[in-house]
Fold this protein.
Amino acid sequence: MVHITINGRELTVEPGMTVLQAAKQAGIDIPTLCHHPAISDIGACRMCLVEVAKQRALQPACTFPVTEGMEVQTESPKVVAARKFVLQLLFSERNHYCMYCQMSGDCELQALAYRYGLDHWIYDRPFEPMPVDGSRRYFLLDHNRCVLCRRCIRACGEIVANHTLGTRQRGSKTMISADLDAPFGQSTCVSCGTCLEVCPTGALIDRKSAYRGRVSRGDVQLSRNVCVGCAVGCGVVVVHRAGHIVRIESDWDAEPSRGLLCVTGRFEQLDEVRPRLTRPLVRRNGALVETDWDTAMEAAVAGFRKATTSGAMATGRAMNETYGALARAFTLAGTWGKALPVLGYGKPGTLADLEGADAIVVAGADPAETHRVVAYRIRRALDHGARLFLVDGGGEYLQPFATLSVPSAEAAKVVEVVADASSPVVIYGTGLDESALKALKALDGKAVFMGLPEAANARGAEAEGVKSWNGTAAVDALYVLAGDDPAEPQELPQAGFLVVQSAYRSALTDRADVVLPSPAWAERSGHVTNLEGRTCAFEAAFPAPEGVPAEWQPLATLAERLGKA
Amino acid sequence: MGKVLVATDWLAACAGCHMSLLDLDERLVGLLEKIQITSSPITDLKHPPKEGVTVGILTGAVNNTSNEEVARQMRERCQVLIALGDCAVFGGIVTMRNFCSMREALHRAYVECETVVDGKVPASPELSRLLPTALAVNQVVKVDVHLPGCPPSADAIYHVLSELLAGRVPEVKGEYLKYD
C-alpha cells in the first residue's frame, strides 16, 4: 500500500492507482472532462490538473500514478487558476454558445464553466465554421461543439472495438474523423451510439430526443431496464417523460453488457409507428369492434372451450412470468423463431468468458446481425490477442478477422487447431448443422459453449415450461402473444379461431377474432433470462396506458377460466 | 443621499434582456426608491446624461458602427458598466454571422429569406455600417460586471444591482450564472 495526502487528508491507497482514482475513492472531487470511467485515460483536456509537491508543473490526476509520500492539492489557488485558463482556452475555439444547444443543462463543459465561475471569455475566437455531419440516421456529429476530448474515439476502439473513429489533421485543425475521413453514415460505423453516450458536450447529439427535456432539470426520469431486442439482455437506462420513451442510454453497471448497446437496443426500438391498442376488440359480423375486457375474455374462453385442439405461439420478448402463465394455459406452446440446436455438452458460457478467451469459434451464427453486442465483445477479445475461427458463420462483419473460416463439413479442421487453445469459447447459432455439431463435440469439456437463441427470452420461456412447439400442425384455436414485437411471426399454424395479444395494431391483429391489448416493453415489471441463463429483474419505467393489464394477466385469466390454473 | 443614477441601452439585441429586467416586477418599485433610471431604449430619453451616471447597463452585441458609438458613450458616461446577457458578454447569437462572410449573411437575411419577396440588401447612407465581425462588449470597451444568460434571470439582475447598491462588487456564480 502507498501512503499519500490529498488536501491534507492522509490516505492509504493501492499502488498503481492514479491520483484521480485515489481521490475518488476518498470522496474527493477532482473535475474531469476527457476522463470517462469506462475507457482508458489519456490526460488530454488538462481539467484534472492538480498540484503535486516536488513536481515542477501541475500534473493531470487521471494519468498520474500515486507514489509513497506524495502530497497533492486539488483546489489550490494555482490549480484553480490553471483550470480557469484551460476553460478559457476550450471556449476560445469553435462554437460553444449554449442558448441553441440541446445539451445545455446536461453538458459537462458547461457544468465545469459554471463550477469555475466563467462569467466572460478573455480570448478572441476564430469563428472558423466546422461541418456538421448529418449522414447518420439516429445521431449527428457537430464538429463546432467538439472539444477534442477523444472520448468517442476511445469508446469506439476500446468498448465496441469497432475502431471507426480517429482524428485527422493536427493542432487546432484536428477533427474527429470516421475511417479515412468518410461521412459518418457511410463509414464502418455500426450505429451502436456508444460515442454519443460518452460525448461530454453537444458534439454528438441524438436526433430524436433533442430538446425533449433535460436530465439535470428533472424534466425526464431515468429507469433501469433490460433490453429484449435479442437474447444478450443488455442493461439499459430508459429516459422517459410523461409515459413516453425519450431515448435509451447505456447502463454502465449492468451485466452482461456493462454499457455496450447496439443500434437495435439504443435506437431501433423507438422506431415503432403502429397504432397503439388500449381496448380489447372482438369480431362481430366480420368487423373488429371495441369492447370491454369481460366480453373479450368471454369470447376468447368460449372459442378455446369449443376447440378440440388449441395451441399458443409467443414472441420471444415476453417476460418469464408471462411464459409461466402461457405454459399453464396451453400444453402446445412455443416461441417464434427457429429453435437452437441442443449442444448437450460443454459448460454454458457467459459473455465474460470472451474476455479471457484465446480462441473463439463462431459456428452457424452471424452475431453481428442477430446478437450484435456479442460480435463487439468478440472483436474486443480479438484486440486482446484471441484468434477467431468461423464454421459456416461470422458473416461479413467478422469474416475479415478470422484466422480460419471453413464450411460446416470441414468443422474438424477448426476443432483440430482450437484443441491446442487454453481457453476456447464456442459461440453457436441456429444455423449449426449436424456435421458441425458432431465435430464440435470434440471440444467437450475443453471449451465453454454459448448458444445464440433467436428468441430474446428463449431461456426464460424454456425454464417456464414453454415447449418449443414449432406450430406446424393446424389447430382449432390459436392464441398468439405478439406483445410489442416489431416483427410479425413468419408463419403461424392454421386455426379456425384466433386470439392475438398485442401492444400494436398490425396485419396479425386485423385477422384475429379477439384482440387483447398488451403492455409495451418498458411498461412491464418482471423478469427475463438472457442467453447466459442470467435472470434479470426489472421495473416498469412508466405504467401502461389505462386499461392495459400486465402482460401475463389475460393468460392467467384464460388458464383459470379453462380450468387449467 | 440622492438616488443612484442608472442608464441602460441596447446594442444588437432582441430586447429579451430588458424584458428580464422588467421581470423584476414589484421589486422594481423597491429598487426605484434607491435608483433613478435616467435613460433607456424604451423611454423618451435614450442617451445617458452628459453629467454621467453611476451604473450603465448594456445588452446586445456590438454589431455595427452605431452599436460601437452607443457602447463608447455609455462607457464614457458611467462609472460601473454591466454587460447584461449572453450577447453583451460573449457576442451570443449575433456572432452567428461571424461564421460566414458579411455578404452571405446579408444576402441570406434580405434576399434569400423564405418570407422575403423581391428583397434587396439595404444600402442607405443613413444606416450605420456593419463591423467586420460581431463583438462582445468587452472587445470594444472595458466591462466591470459580466452577467451572462439568455436572458439572465430577474433574480440574477436583482442580485447584481443589490450588490452594487450595497457597495460590493457583485459575484456572478451558482444559480445566478447561466449561459442559456
User: Anything to note?
Assistant: The mean pLDDT of chain A is 94. The longest strand of chain A covers residues 475-483. The two ends of chain A are 61 Å apart (CA to CA).
